Amino acid sequence: MSELTGKGAAELGELIASGETSAVEVATAHLDRIRAVDAEVHAFLHVDREGVLAQARSIDERRAAGEELGPLAGVPVAHKDVFTTKDMPTTAGSKILEGWRPPYDATVTARLRAAGMVILGKTNMDEFAMGSSTENSAFGPSRNPWDLTRIPGGSSGGSSAAVAAHEAPLGTGTDTGGSIRQPAAVTGLVGMKPTYGGASRYGMIAFASSLDTPGPFARNVLDAALMQAAFSGHDPMDSTSIDAPVPPVVEAARRADVAGLRVGVVKEFAGEGYQPGVLNRFNETVELLESLGAKVVEVSCPHFTYAMPAYYLIAPSECSSNLARFDAMRFGLRVGDDGVHSAEEVMALTRAEGFGAEVKRRIMLGTYALSSGYYDAYYGKAQQVRTLIMRDFEAAFEQVDVLISPTTPTTAFPIGERADDPMAMYLADLCTIPANLSGNPAISVPCGLADEDGLPVGVQIMAPVLADDRVYRVGAALEKALEERWGGPLLAKAPKLEAGE
Questions:
Q1: Where is each Amidase domain found (predicted)?
Q2: Quick check: helix, strand or coil at residue 441?
Q3: What's the CATH fold of domain 4-304+387-493?
Q4: Which of 10, 39, 165, 371 is deepest in the core (most CB within 10 A)?
Q5: Is 480 a catalytic residue?
Q6: Distance (Å, rounded) from C-alpha 281 to C-alpha 386?
Q7: Pick the catalytic residue: 155, 232, 320, 405?
Q8: Which residues contact 63 (CB under 8 A, 6 or more apart)?
Q9: 137 counts as catalytic
Q10: Which residues contact 49 (CB under 8 A, 6 or more apart)?
């Protein structure tokens, strides 16, 4: 592995800015790493080597011309294949969009480019972001670099695998029910779900519009903060975008101090169904926060236990509405267009072939929940539960500054283990869903390795809406203390992928 691929984003940005290395050299090192290991990891669906080098050369030329560039200029990023890119295919992990080249960039894509970041390619994902393992991708699963027989989480598993395998220092993801935080936890990364509306959804292929949130993957807290700052902010193209200043996340990540902060341990997220090694690392993290000067108390959020059933009515309902646009008439796959079949038959044939089993399952659940006679009983009731969960958060934050819990109940499970058991798969997002229903910011930070299998465990930190800086402050303090205890980053303990080296 190249020395450059082992460095974080902030460090790479400084090296490029100082002239100690170039954007082309950094891009080449990461492209070589992808070529060496991605046949095993399968993080990427599309990489355009010449296009990547052209992006990097442009950064070097702009810097040589004296242009003032940002802290991440020249730094590579692995981009989830749910964001539209006019120079690369965008599939959302689905056969129904295979080969589709959008005519425009998503706002997140455009802002990455404006920050001077080099987009390495598009990463694998559960189809239309529906899943917790990346096994629902129409193009095959990605694999966890810690153990190639295990999942890297989902739906943003391609990005988490790429960053954990040192194929990229940063990755983009989307979080609808935990799809950044859960992959980050099981691959030993930092993964952040910003406040809903803090970053634009324009050009991000929709799963559930009131829940979907773009966010960063990184190997440390500061890198995640720098990337969030780069692509966040108001966007008039997104009606749900918040017209407010971006919270001072970078300053908070550099502060790394919890002295005097009130930390609430969510009572409902530490019971049965949790892997013992996960709970052990979480309890040690709680003790560490106390030793750093935080005041830790137990907080009850009673309606959090209803978050999962509410989510699996709201999200499929919105998915049923959003995915109606894939009708074989305007773009994407078209099956049966032979002059014999009617438009309705072409639509049915295309959807039958183009959508995978999990997407079909959620469309059917959502369509049923929205149907006449059932809307109030299912979708309406779920929205009422959502309101109660928001009130739980509000009541909790009257007592404490942040809430913490395990990020996910278990470490990475073997590929195929839960493929035929949707309920077991859904439980991976048990702790992460409430923050999506309420819109609160939440981060997952590595907190150690489980006793049973030596795989990464994550701790989740949640804060009030638009207090994203608060989770970075706590996350950075934990990261600093834990690295002192471990003698370096957790990811340094990962088995090295030696393929092609």
A1: 25-471
A2: coil
A3: Amidase signature (AS) enzymes (3.90.1300)
A4: 165
A5: no
A6: 30
A7: 155
A8: 16, 17, 23, 69, 73, 74
A9: no
A10: 31
